[in-house]
Amino acid sequence: MINNDAQLRCVSGSACATDRRTANYSIGPAAKRTPRIFVRRVGVAAATALLIVALSWPESAPAFQEFPIPTSNSQPTGITAGPDGALWFTEFNGNRIGRITTSGVITEFPIPGRNSLPGGITAGPDGNLWFTQGNPVFGKIGRITPAGQITEFNVPTFLAVPADITVGPDGALWFTEGNGDKIGRITTAGQITNEFSVTTPNSQPGGITAGPDGNLWFTERSGNNIGRITTAGVVTEFPIPTPGSSPITIRPGPDGNLWFTEQGTGKLGRITTSGVITEFLIPAPGAQPSDIAAGPDGALWFTDNGSGNIGRITTDGIFIEFALPNGGSQPTGIVAGPDRALWFDEFRNNKIGRLAASIVLTDRHDFNTDSNSDILWYNTTSGQVVNWLISGTSVIAGGSLGSVPSPWAIVGQRDFNGDGRSDILWRNGATGEVVIWLVNAASVIGGGSLPAAPTLDWTVAGTGDFNNDGLGDILWYNTNTGQVVIWLVRCNAGQGNCTIIGAGSPGSLIPGQGWTIAGTGDFNGDGFADILFFNTNTGQVVIWLLKCTGQNGSCPIIGAGTPGDITVGQGWMVAGTGDFNGDGMSDILWLNTTTGQAVVWLINGTSIIGGGSPGSAPSPWTIVETGDFNGDGKSDILWVNTMSGELVVWLLNGASVIGGCSPGSAAPPWQVQGVNDD
Q1: Do 216 and 273 touch, CB atoms closer than 8 A?
Q2: Nearest 5°: phi and psi at 433?
Q3: Residue 60 · residue 417 · CB < 8 Å
Q4: 78/130 Cα distance (integer angstroms)
Q5: Quick one: pLDDT band at residue 462, thresholds 50, 70, 90?
Q6: Residues 41, 55: Cα–Cα separation, whole Å
Q7: What is the pLDDT of residues 312-341, one digit of tens each?
């Protein structure tokens, strides 16, 4: 990474970022750097063994991954997680069932019948996959084994057009008949035992799922209803408030309700098991939601084939949307995979897509929604704030956000208004006032103030999404009493009106015993931020697993533990947190201020599951921030030379360096506004 004269060298064949200095905020070329880099790597087990390794960097991986389907124009439609750890999907026009591993290897299995038009697919209770065949004349239900053997079963009703299929609470498969206006039941032996008529004629039943109440729930596309059917065949219908909603799919949510898509009105719907419906308008213009699924983060994820986005909605109705790399892809089915990522069909682009949920679970310091972390600078003399928009290790744009002199200080970066962009949290060190700047790329688009803390004993110890609403919250610590308090914050999606919607205290620390708040992160992957503590006297590390519920500020500790201890007096400090292996759970980054060695602890809950040292960098280099600078869903390390202001990004995969370069430099009094929470 850095040689002894502290000048950056990049690897052969890898283009360094051009030099971007904050003096004029313009983006212009700089002198090319020597195309070579040396990384000093020190093993954890043998810290004295020094290896000088020349590295070859791969291309930066995007936040989205797309895998082309071998059969052209196959029109992938449905997708589900299989019993074999792979994802299985239907090819509506390709007349095939596809299988894709989590590493992206695709296998296709031709369906025996011609033009079967496969649609919905689900994993059955028998270890096989079951799917619908919507040919209007020869409607069938198909079964495919994990080895690819396909069996077809005829649906009795002529012109039935089977649409979707799910596993029922009775161990059978239940399916909708879009043209037959019926709900069908088939056993794992292939016997269709019942076809139950829907009350509303010409209702076009579409999506179907098992509910938490022991019933089956389905959508009626033309009937504009949500239907419920018992295993005995008793049907009840609930009208959707908005006419012409054209509901497509319905799935169970993590909140005990059912969630459905309204393609005709650009809304998502939520229905309780007692039939109460709430609708949420999707912000994206021209939205046409298709499928929806519960994610690994406690939220719902949906495909929007109108805008071409993959969207996320919390159970409180907060939206974030992510644009696919190629417009017009028409994403259709979506499901959470065994790798804690979201997998989806791209109907028009003929691809299967993958989106790591960790891009939302961790705060990326992403000010322009390109899934890459950016770098925020502050001039301690003039008070000027400058933002560098980063892609990999290159500055692609930037600008000045304005000036705020001391005693104001930047104390956090988090998305406070739910637009997918990080915002800036300020605090006045003299008055205790708190202000939020809402940011879009290199512009301040609005903001709002929050009440000042009662006394200056209260310090902002971090930020995080403590109630899983997709918005940043504020963690406070009282240095006099040891009390820990969380403010649940919400700024509107417009240009201001930031409010505290709840506040609570998970507990207190005993003052004077060396305990410090070392960072925040989601260490157990439940979508709720947790707190990391470090005792500077004993070297003990403790994690509080939290779960703030609703808007009442209740933030109980649901678990706690110590992943390990550090020997005191050897220069170790917590340099940050981040998801370094992309498993959706925060990890801990250590820095030895004496030797310059960096060490990663990979965490699951409160346990260390792996780790290692990505390398070392001697003083005056120090770690200033963690973030995902190349958008691959894994956290990276940002180093700064405190003397020259030179920056270096290490791109990581777990505890290994896979690439890196310098985006540029800015000498003091410019300082990177790093944070130690993810």
Answers
A1: no
A2: -60, 150
A3: no
A4: 11
A5: very high
A6: 11
A7: 888 878 787 888 887 789 999 999 998 878
Termini Cα distance of the chain = 24
pLDDT tens digit sequence for 493-552: 656 689 998 999 999 999 889 999 999 999 998 889 999 999 999 999 999 999 987 555
- Is 194 within 8 Å of 160 (Cβ atoms)? no
Confidence tier at 63 by pLDDT (50, 70, 90): low
Report the relative pairing of strands 530-535 and 106-110 from DSSP bridges: unpaired
| 348-361 residue pLDDT tens | 999 999 987 654 44
Q: Is 554 helix (H, G, I), strand (E, B) or coil?
A: strand
Scanning 152-281, the segments in alpha helix (DSSP H) are none
Q: Label residue 275 by pLDDT band (50, 70, 90).
A: very high
Share of the chain above pLDDT 90, in %: 73
- Choose among 612, 574, 566: nearest CA to 593: 574
C-alpha of 280 from chain center: 21
| Sheet hosting strand 319-323, strand order edge to edge | 289-294, 300-304, 309-313, 319-323
Count of Cβ atoms closer than 10 Å to residue 237 Cβ? 18
Cβ-based neighbours of 162, under 8 Å, separated by 6 or more:
119, 120, 132, 133, 134, 139, 140, 141, 155, 175, 176, 177, 178, 184
Give 26's contacts (C-beta < 8 A, 6+ positions apart): none
Of 636, 647, 638, 637, whose CA–CA distance to 670 is shortest?
647
**Mean predicted confidence (pLDDT) in 453-463:** 93
CB 629 within 8 A of CB 651: yes
Is the CB of residue 286 less than 8 Å from the CB of residue 307?
Answer: yes
Give one DSSP letter per residue of 346-408, joined into a string.
ETTTTEEEEEETHHHHS----SSSSSS--EEEEETTT-EEEEEEEETTEEEEEEEEEE--TTE
**Position 311 confidence tier, pLDDT thresholds 50, 70, 90:** very high
Q: What is the DSSP letter of 248?
A: E
356 φ/ψ sector (left φ>0, alpha ψ -120 to 50, else beta): beta
Question: What does the pLDDT read at residue 495?
Answer: 60
Q: Is 210 exposed, middle or buried (0-12, 13-18, 19+ CB in 10 A)?
A: buried
| Segments of 567-627 assigned E as strands | 572-578, 587-592, 597-604, 607-616, 621-627
The per-residue pLDDT for range 83-92, each reduced to its tens digit, is: 999 999 999 9
Write the DSSP symbol of residue 11: P
Output the 3-class SS for 288-326.
CEEEEEECCCCCEEEEECCCCEEEEECCCCCEEEEECCC
- The CB-side HSE value for 594 (13 A sphere, CA atoms) comes to 5
pLDDT digits (tens, 9 = 90+) for 376-399: 999 999 999 999 999 888 999 999
